[in-house]
Structure formats: structure tokens, C-alpha cells
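During the second year of the project, the team shifted from modelling isolated chains to modelling whole assemblies. The rationale, set out in the original proposal, was that interfaces cannot be judged from single-chain predictions alone. As a representative example for this report, we include one of the complexes processed in the last quarter. Its constituent sequences, exactly as entered into the pipeline, are reproduced here:
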Amino acid sequence: MMEIVRRDLDRYLRHSAGDRRARVLAIATNCGLQAVLVYRFGRWLQRAPWWLFPLVIPGWIAYGLALLLTRYGYGIRVALSADIGPGLCIWHFGGIDVRDCTIGSNCAIAQHTTIGPEPGGQRPVVGDRVWFSPHVRCIGAFHVGDGATIGAGVTVTEDVPAHVLVIGNPARVAMQAYDNSLFNF
Amino acid sequence: MSAALRADSRMYCRLRFPRLPLALALPLVWLTSPGLLRLAVHRFCRWGALRRQAQGRTPLNFALLLLAFALHRIIIVLTKVDTSNETDIDGGVYISDRGNIVFGSRHTGSGTIVHHRVTIGMRPPGSECPEIGENVWIGPDCIVTGRISIGAGCTLLPGTVVSRDVPPGCLLEGNPARLVQRNFDNTALRSSLRWKVEAKDIVTERAMAS
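Output from the structure prediction step:
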């Protein structure tokens, strides 16, 4: 659990690793980081053993209060039904809706991005190191390959292969073997 | 700062309450417009940051920094509009009351209207923020990214994604953006907030023409 949170924090603190003051500032000011931490806390509560109930019951109350801030205050909804690997990075805030999906490690999600299934459908599966730009809608049982980069305003309508750049609406593959490690690391 | 805010509030009055006298519309607008509050907080934060840059660390500047920080946190939750201190916004700009805006342009001219769910200035390393001219109309769900400049009097129809330079007076739509018309006059769009009616007129005109 702490290992996952540490990797989340590393994503935000890549320019100032090990700086205690920068870590405190990031947790206090970064809306996306707060939402990620609240999500991790909720996942931990779900899997906590039963004998920890004196801790878990107040924990759920604290989780609900924190949800008020991140979900209604910032508009970042990362539901506990989403299964997200370590190193999640959420940029900015507003209109983010992530639920019922499987996301790999070291992914980045920007504002106004929706990832989820169609009503009653299968969950979308997203690989590792995928970069979601702003205003991306990925709704349906799609598979997004490892290291893919989804451009701004794209509506994903079919499976995305690994290591490609997808732009435009309707979506098309603009570049094969596109490396997003320059801005997603 | 105050002159720019005065121009902003006039703009909000003109757009939201075009028929009310200014004396009545001004308090109404300050009480009911989250976008105007957001602009006021942005101008205050930017003024404080510039002052801190010029004068260095003094106790008064530190107090201003704390106040700006607190105001910024509150206004984010209230309006869901994010602006950065580097953003230079001229007076007389309308930022939508519906929020959900990420606003990070280098410079924005007066008379510009920014609607809700807009992202301006995505900044991955190696690129920079856009510059927006005067009297630009940016519809809902638009994205403007990269080190580009949007000319004066441009119109971005809803859902446009722009990442190239745009000459003045163009009408753009689509993702990726395509030029629909040169020398488009957007004064009708900018004169009210009933953009759906005006945008429908544009679409029907184009359908008639084609």
C-alpha cells in the first residue's frame, strides 16, 4: 500500500525527489494528487482485515468527507470500482470520471477525461504508461495498448494498439512507434 | 488591476443583463457571477506575484502570498476554473460562469469570450502556451495547445482542437481544426450569451450555401 502511494507521489515530485517541503506542498496544493490519495485510501479500506474495524469505520467517514472535496469540490471522480496500478497521475481537475475499468501502472489522466464502460457493458482495459490528454472519452470495452498516447479531444471508438499516437475526431492513428516517455515518466 | 476589473464587470453586465441599467446590473453581477469572482482573484494573485518579484521577500508580500493562496483554494472549489499566475489577461474578458476551464495562455486580449469546459495551454515540456488576440470567441469544449497565436476576431466553434497558428478573423471547427471561413464577423456571437441560437444560424447558413 505505502509502496503504491510512494510511486504515486514520485510521479508528482519528479523534479524535486526527496525534498520534504516539496512533498508537503504538493499534497496541500495539487488537486489531482489529493484525489489519487483519497482513491488509494478507499481501496485500502476495502481490503482491510475485519479486526481493524476500530480504524476502518472512522476511516470510511473520513473517506466520505474527503470525497465531498475531491468529487464535488474539484470534480474528480475516481470510483473505487476502477482498478488502477501504481503511479497514477491526474493533471488539473474538473469533469474527470474514471470508473469500472482496469488501468495499468504509470498512466496519466488529464481534465475532462471519461474512462468507463457502456451501461451494462464490459470494462475497458488500459495498459501501462498510457497518456490520456484532456477531453478524452474512452467509453466501452476497448483495449488501449501499453505506452499509447491519446491526443486531445479524442473519442476512442476502437481498440488502440501499443505505442501509437492517436489524434482527431473520429480518431485515427497519427504515428506508429510513438514514444511518450519524454513527458510521461 | 482595478481598471481591468472595472472593464471586466462592464463586460459581464453587458452580456448577462443587457437591458438593466449599469447601477443595478453591477451589484447583481458581483453577487452572482463565479466567473467574475475568479477573474478578480486571478488579478489579485497575479498582482501579488508581480509585486513579490519586483520587491523581494517582505512581510507584507508574504501576507499577500498567504491570502492569495487561500483565495485560490476557495475559488477553485467554487468555480472549477484554474488559471496560472503567468497568464496575462487584459481587462474586459468574459470567462464562463459554468466553470470547468483550465486557462493558461501567455496573453489574452480584451473582448474575448471563453465558454465552459475549455482547455487553453496544455504544456508538455518543450512547448509553450498560446497567445490569444482580442475579440476571440471560444466555444464550449475547445482545446488550444502549444506555442501558437490565435489572431484577433477568431471564432472557435464548439469542440475545436487547435494546435497551429490561426490568422485573424477565421472561423474554425473540428478536431483537428479546419478553416471554415475567412473574415468571419463574430460580433453577433460576442454580443450575447445565447450562443446556441447564433451557432445554429451559422450551421444553417453553411448548409444552405453548400
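The mean pLDDT of chain A is 91. The longest helix of chain A spans residues 53-73.
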